[in-house]
Structure to design on (368 residues):
């Protein structure tokens, strides 16, 4: 991550000098820094609400129930989490919320799942295999219906917006599987 | 169809909440106490992810503003023409992993320029709908628990995005060309 950070910024400055856009780049950096704080603060309310709801489910024992049902299939993907019921049920909730296109609800579940995995992590600054696999699933962005895109297309008056659902579903499913496979292969090479 | 799906996604959140609340009632669990206790975490997590979010968003914003994307587009032009990929869609391919709001902006731009029923719009829609903002997801999830060594996580995300892009181009050419 260290090198990516340095590399990205340096390349940007070099390109900016070539394209004579140094002022634009500096503006962009400062604006986006400001915006990331706004995004983080914007998350507080939604996160708070869902973490509250999830905590009820945890305290009432519903989470254990969910984790019992989905334990077997999920353990195939996350072998390290055999004894981490809470992480498994949060992962299940995160994947289902994402699949339904509820990104706002999915993030708190995902963060909770990460915290649950972090508990058993020996080196707290380094990601475990399960964390990377879980992240890969999330970055692949599997969803059954691309609600936001459909809304934009409908608003712009596309004749038949539903035609994009099937191709999108095919692409997102395959890249979901790719993410899983890549993560399983690459985890051996990164210690 | 869309209306049905919209109705479905509107119903799902209340449904989940109701199931959780009814189960709590049935088990006589302290719902209000648990809720407020859990909600406290929202603030802590948001504060924790800020530094990571700033780092990643500043990087990607600088990259986009620098014109590096135009350079890449020009280099790739012969390949794009060969695969009949509309040149407008390369911007969305390159921004998809970096910024969610920028991607939606680019999508709106493509709709404006090429028309809502054009091939470029369809391809851009499939790309937008089938992927997630990889850099944002990594910074939020790893930021929340203070992970600094990402190992293969980012590489896997980017490789899966590339696989998704190639597939999107292929599937769209079958469906829409």
């Amino acid at each position: 991550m260290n090198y990516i950070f340095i590399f990205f910024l340096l390349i940007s400055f070099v390109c900016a000098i070539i394209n004579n856009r140094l002022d634009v780049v500096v503006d962009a950096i400062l604006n986006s820094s400001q915006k990331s704080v706004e995004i983080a603060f914007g998350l507080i309310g939604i996160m708070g609400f869902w973490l509250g709801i999830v905590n009820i489910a945890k305290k009432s024992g519903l989470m254990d129930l969910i984790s019992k049902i989905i334990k077997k299939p999920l353990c195939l993907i996350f072998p390290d989490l055999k004894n981490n019921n809470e992480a498994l049920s949060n992962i299940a909730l995160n994947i289902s919320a994402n699949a339904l296109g509820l990104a706002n609800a999915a993030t708190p579940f995902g963060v909770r799942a990460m915290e649950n995995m972090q508990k058993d992590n020996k080196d707290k600054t380094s990601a475990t295999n399960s964390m990377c696999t879980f992240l890969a699933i999330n970055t692949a962005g599997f969803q059954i219906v691309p609600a936001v895109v459909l809304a934009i297309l409908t608003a712009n008056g596309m004749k038949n917006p539903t035609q994009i659902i099937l191709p999108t579903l095919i692409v997102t499913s395959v890249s979901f599987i790719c993410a899983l496979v890549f993560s399983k292969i690459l985890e051996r090479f990164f210690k | 169809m869309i209306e049905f799906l919209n109705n479905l996604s509107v119903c799902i959140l209340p449904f989940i909440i109701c199931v959780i609340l009814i189960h709590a009632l049935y088990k006589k669990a302290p719902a209000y106490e648990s809720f407020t206790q859990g909600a406290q975490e929202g603030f802590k997590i948001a504060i924790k992810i800020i530094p990571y979010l700033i780092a990643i968003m500043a990087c990607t914003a600088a990259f986009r503003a620098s014109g590096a994307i135009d350079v890449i587009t020009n280099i790739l032009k012969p390949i794009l023409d060969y695969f009949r990929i509309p040149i407008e869609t390369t911007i969305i391919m390159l921004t998809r992993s970096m910024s969610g709001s920028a991607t939606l902006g680019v999508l709106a731009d493509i709709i404006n320029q090429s028309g809502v029923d054009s091939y470029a719009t369809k391809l851009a829609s499939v790309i937008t709908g089938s992927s997630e903002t990889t850099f944002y997801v990594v910074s939020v999830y790893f930021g929340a628990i203070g992970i600094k060594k990402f190992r293969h996580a980012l590489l896997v995300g980017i490789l899966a995005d590339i696989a998704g892009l190639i597939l999107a181009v292929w599937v769209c050419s079958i469906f829409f060309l």
Observations:
- Chain A is about 75% helix and 0% strand.
